[in-house]
Amino acid sequence: MMIRAINCILLIFALIFIFQKTEKQHYYNWDAIPYSMGLHIYEGRSVDEAHYLTYYNLREEVDPRLFQDLCCSGKYRSEQFSSSENLNSMLPMYVSKPGYIFLISAIKNVFNISEYQAMKYISIYAVVLLSILFFVSFFQANGIAQFAWIPLVIAGDILFLGKLMTPDAVTTLIFAVGLALLLSKRLISGYVVLALSMLFRLDMIVAVGLLGLLPVLKKKFIFAAANSIAFLSIYFIVSSASDHIGWWAHFYTSVISQQSNLTEFKPDFDFERYLSIVFGNLEWVFRDTNYIKWFAMNIVLFFTGAYFYQKKKNIFLNTILMILCASIIIKFFLFPKVDARIYLSILTPALFIAFLNFNYRKKVES
Fold first, then answer.
1. What is the pTM of this model?
2. Rounded (10°) CA dihedral 81, 84, 86, 92
3. Between the CA atoms of 219, 222, 224 and 229, what dihedral angle is there, to the nearest 10 degrees?
4. Tens digits of per-residue pLDDT, 173-188?
5. Contact, 119 vs 165, CB < 8 A?
């Protein structure tokens, strides 16, 4: 009883620390700008009005030096600032997260705050709730295992996620909740929540789609097929509704040559160039200590899952763990960004799943 009381006290201190740290050290990502413009268009403004409000509200939010950095540091940012058409052409890559746009709008209007403040607090409260989820998941564990949420919060880059004005934190939360539902055998609810994560990051289709095939292991082929149809339908509906520029054009402007206007941008696919970028960025990950962490952690987690699976311990749980790790590798090959942020929506929940192997009091069996 005393240990559980100490654990609860530690949680309270941890939540206060997480909130204060992320609230005071939040980071204005440039990506918050197109999310802001996408929000204003979603709320009925014209392109020019949305562009004006985006930068006007930003100027009200930040000090002059940070505003100058966000609006005008470099050719690309300057061209987005000077032209509403340029920034509007970027929006398909951002409004393809309709769940995030809707949530920003709802928080902004309910609490009468700016869209930038809404993005900030979405991330902060997402990581607070994620920390609580980790705590609750280990609360009934035996002995020291009930404190597993602490290294999980640290290794899962919770503070980093909470400081970002992007959909990554809330996507991580939703995805982790979906996995928890799957592990508790509430499969339909779990798959519904996993599908919801795709409305916040459409590239979650990789992990969600693979997880949707899990019923095949129990010879439930119709269930698996229904999942695939549902997830692919969401993907194509959202892509079509947002006028997404397509995988190769997105790939090209993100990791090959950044474009200032994407309206007529339709580059020809070059397989040789694709391979050179993938393997070049993979080498970059191996050589740079700033980026090797997420890749190495993913490999360790995969072999952790494979080890426990081979030992026939928590078979369902470790099957999910291996699928998550494999989906991160697939995601890298499809879109080889070196930044850990791109993968944390899957990697942090994968770490959570791996830690559940040590929750001896309440095992998740196949």
1. 0.94
2. 110
3. 160
4. 999 999 999 999 999 9
5. yes
